[in-house]
């Protein structure tokens, strides 16, 4: 890699891998991808345009307060329509592709 986005790429790679596994409903996959990988993303780990999109998505998947044993991500994603959950998964993939292109120019 030729830039400072290596760790961001790794987090997106892991999140995309979780989403692509297909082992569970899309909402469960999205919860796992954000809770166990993407949640730790820092602003300087992504290009500015990708960070802007990422932070918008993080806001969208953490909008509801934690309830009982559910964290904020789980509580929020469970309120999303299935089609929006699938769109968010696709957007995570698009961010992975964008960072991959930068890393391997």
**Beta-strand level of the residues, as a percent range?**
under 5%
Summed over residues and divided by their number, the pLDDT gives a mean of 93
Ranges where pLDDT stays below 50 over 5 or more residues in a row are: none
- By DSSP (H or I, 4+ residues per run), the number of helices equals 5
**What is the number of strand segments?**
0
What is the number of domains? 1
Based on Cα principal axes, name the global outline: globular
Largest sheet: none
Helix content: 55-70%
From the helix content, strand content and strand pairing, which structural class follows?
A: mainly alpha
Could you state the order of secondary-structure elements as H and E?
Answer: HHHHH
* Structural Rg: 13 Å
Taking the alpha carbons of the first and last residues, their distance comes to 9 Å
Written account of the structure:
This protein has one domain. The protein is mainly alpha-helical and 105 residues long. The longest helix has 22 residues, at 82-103. It has helices at residues 6-20, 26-35, 48-61, 72-77, 82-103.
């Amino acid at each position: 890699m030729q830039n400072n986005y290596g760790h961001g790429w790794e987090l997106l790679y892991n999140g995309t891998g979780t989403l692509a596994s297909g082992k569970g409903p899309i909402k469960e996959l999205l919860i796992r991808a954000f809770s166990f990988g993407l949640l730790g993303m820092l602003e300087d780990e992504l290009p500015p345009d990708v960070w802007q999109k990422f932070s918008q998505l993080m806001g969208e998947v953490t909008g509801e307060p934690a309830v009982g044993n559910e964290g904020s991500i789980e509580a929020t994603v469970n309120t999303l329509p299935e089609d929006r959950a699938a769109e968010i998964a696709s957007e995570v993939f698009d961010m992975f592709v964008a960072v991959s292109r930068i890393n391997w120019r």
